[in-house]
Design goal:
The structure holds 2 protein chains of 2 kinds. Chain A is mostly helical. In chain B, a hairpin with a 5-residue loop joins β11 and β12. The chains are: A mainly alpha, B alpha/beta. Chain B: InterPro entries: BCAA_transport (IPR051010), Leu-bd (IPR028081), Peripla_BP_I (IPR028082).
Chain lengths: 305, 381
């Protein structure tokens, strides 16, 4: 029973990481851009959700606002800053997008203050539900799992079945060629960037609802999202999905099980300490193992990229 | 950029310096003003400033430099170095978190600065690591948790699940609780500092056969846990130190906290004249109820002012003796220092209640009287 609940926790965490990593891997794969400011877009979505939900009293409007605000912020940033960076090397991109983190963080602090904001769930989403097998589980965490799965399906359909998806895949394969074929590459990039931003903002709003909305909330998640992208293979949505679930499960189950296993050897306090540290190292061990066996990532397009 | 500086009454202090006979004392306040722990630092700052304001002319003798440590030990160390070397402060204060205090305090007192703690009081600095220039005006870290353990024993709770963040104050917390709890601890869990998702811990609580949960999660950690606990449908009663149900946490947690018992050395309904004045002026000045952190900082500032009235800071021994007398009107009613310069005071059990449309705490009984700490004997100075 405990294991089932922890597995659901891992699944929920993985879905959240997927929402974050999907945008990152798209931008990385299609544009070859390292976007450190992705965590800021996650934060922007969370703040938009909190502000709109507080102003209108409707959580659903807040959630919609998180998508719109993060997409708008993403498009704006792409046009104003990112567009100038495609031809530059990765160091310039890292510097510029790191600067964006600082701008976003201070700007948000200026607008909303340093105090964390807290969202209240609508009654229809709050509380726990009984799952088959008698397990009680918070409804909203199930909703996050559902949203994550829906986004994964939607993205797969978008990439595999639509004209825009064809262009995105083509852009990934050879950007000069599709430019020469008459595709407006600048607009394509803006759309992809805004799409990634919207997903990050959506993830921020969902997570902000169960945790808290505060300046700097995006950076810890960003690091994990990069781990997911590396494990899954750069540019692969499928890889991001599998990688996110792997990381989510490994982290959650590691934290849940390791202290118990170690306490058979040591006393509770040190088993706890060592177990918790080992658990946080586990995902990086996972990344290292994947990189040794498949340097291009699980679903990467090839080592040459 | 992130550092905010505030110089209070600098020019006025110099102008008045001749009058009161004492030179202005420069105080460096390092506290947490951003991120999940910001509520604690903001209350610390506001409580301290209020005491200076209420003291009138005497308060203007204190020149205060305030900086945000972002709840990061490395940032706190940088600020402390800067305050000691370039601002040349005489007294340091304000640190909320024990891991930051461990990074700053030993070095500061070694450089001959006084450190008056408004909150953090790790066991390491109460026992063998005590120092003549270090005073804790709040408590010793274990104290509130010891009181909670005593309360859990009195309430006849047979089995508890205990949980705290993995940092000095968290370890002190669980040690303190277990020192006075006579029942069975079924599980002991350490979480990460700054952790915001408690799904894993809540699953463990659900699976355990504990009758109650004791937890110490200050600031944003407590808010996140309480909200998620309420959503989880796990109904086991909660007990904790005041930090887990402090005035900075209650508005965000909401009704989920109603009826929860917690332990503290202060409460806003404690009946004494200094406390009534403190609560009234705090509300008038800031438009909200004061938290425990504000009360501790208010007492710290008044302790400093009482010593400044008795001794000159240049005479460090006399100044230290004046501090040790603790001759100030404490909002806790009675207050004195033990041999290791940590408080000997009363602890109370409080309950979270609704007053009008705000949630707050009300004292429902005593927990421990004239309680010192377990480390005083190890202190040699």
């Amino acid at each position: 029973m405990l294991l089932a609940e922890q597995a659901l926790n891992g699944l929920q965490y993985g879905m959240m990481l997927f929402l974050m990593a999907a945008g990152l891997t798209l931008v990385f794969g299609v544009m070859g851009l390292i976007n450190l400011a992705h965590g800021s877009l996650y934060m922007a979505g969370a703040f938009a959700c909190a502000a709109v939900a507080a102003a209108t009293g409707s959580f659903w409007l807040g959630l919609a606002a998180s998508l719109v605000a993060a997409a708008a912020a993403g498009a704006l940033v792409e046009i104003a800053v990112i567009r100038r960076l495609y031809a530059r090397d990765h160091l310039d991109q890292v510097l510029a997008t790191f600067a964006l983190i600082l701008v976003f963080s201070e700007g948000t602090r200026w607008l909303f203050g340093s105090f964390p904001l807290y969202l209240t769930l609508p009654p229809s989403l709050s509380g726990a539900v009984m799952l088959p097998g008698g397990l009680h589980y918070p409804l909203f965490r199930l909703v996050i799992i559902g949203f994550g799965a829906a986004v994964a399906l939607g993205l797969w359909w978008l990439i595999a079945r639509t004209r825009l998806g064809i262009r995105i895949r083509a852009g990934e394969a050879d950007r000069e060629m599709i430019g020469a074929l008459g595709v407006d590459i600048a607009r394509l990039y803006t759309i992809v960037f805004a799409l990634g931003a919207a997903l990050a903002g959506f993830a921020g709003a969902l997570v902000g609802t169960i945790q808290s909305v505060q300046v700097g909330m995006g950076e810890p998640v960003l690091i994990l999202a990069f781990v997911v992208v590396v494990i899954g293979g750069i540019g692969s949505i499928k890889g991001a999905f599998v990688g996110a679930l792997l990381v989510g499960m490994t982290d959650t189950l590691g934290k849940a099980l390791l202290p118990g296993l170690l306490s058979r050897m040591w006393d509770a306090a040190s088993a706890n300490t060592v177990g918790a540290s080992l658990a946080s190292v586990l995902i990086y061990v996972l990344m290292a193992v994947v990189l040794i066996l498949r340097p291009q990532g699980l679903f990467g397009a090839g080592a040459g990229r | 950029m992130k550092l905010k500086r505030l110089l209070i009454g600098g020019a006025a202090a110099i102008a008045l310096a001749g009058a009161a006979g004492a030179e202005p004392v420069k105080v460096g306040m390092i506290t947490t003003l951003s991120g999940g722990g910001a509520g604690l630092g903001v209350d610390t700052r506001d409580g301290f400033l209020l005491a200076l304001k209420n003291a009138g002319e005497a308060g203007q003798q204190v020149e205060l430099v305030i900086e945000d440590d972002q709840q990061k030990p490395d940032v706190a160390v940088q600020i402390a170095d800067k305050m000691i070397q370039s601002d040349q402060v005489d007294v340091l204060t304000g640190i909320v978190w024990s891991n930051l205090a461990m990074a700053v305090v030993p070095a500061a007192v070694a450089q001959d600065k006084f450190y008056l703690s408004t909150n953090a009081a790790p066991s390491q600095l109460a026992g063998a690591g005590c120092h003549p220039k270090y005073f804790s005006v709040s408590y010793q870290n274990d104290n509130l948790h010891e009181a909670a353990g005593a309360h859990a024993t009195d309430a006849g709770i047979g089995k508890v699940f205990i949980m705290a963040p993995n940092y000095p104050a968290g370890q002190d917390s669980l040690a303190g609780f277990k020192r006075y709890y006579k029942g069975e601890v079924v599980s002991e869990v350490y979480t990460q500092v700054g952790q915001t998702d408690y799904a894993g811990e809540i699953a463990q609580i659900r699976a355990s056969d504990a009758d109650a949960v004791f937890f110490f999660l200050p600031g944003g950690m407590g808010i996140a846990f309480m909200k998620q606990y309420a959503e989880s449908g796990v109904g086991k009663p909660l007990i904790g130190p005041a930090f887990s149900f402090s005035q900075d946490i209650l508005p965000a947690v909401g009704d989920a906290a109603l009826g929860v018992k917690n332990t503290a050395q202060w409460s806003k309904d404690l009946e004494n004249q200094p406390n009534a004045a403190f609560v009234e002026t705090f509300q008038a000045e800031y438009g909200r109820l004061p938290s425990l952190y504000a009360a501790q900082a208010y007492d710290t500032a008044n302790l400093l002012l009482s010593a400044m009235a008795k001794a000159d800071l240049d005479d460090a021994d006399a100044f230290r003796a004046a501090l040790a007398q603790a001759d100030f009107p404490s909002v806790r009613g009675k207050f004195r220092f033990g041999p290791n310069q940590h408080p000997i005071q009363d602890y109370y059990v409080r309950e979270v209640v609704r007053e009008g449309d705000v949630l707050t705490n009300k004292i429902i009984g005593p927990a421990m009287a004239d309680h010192g700490d377990a480390y005083a004997e190890q202190c040699k100075m």
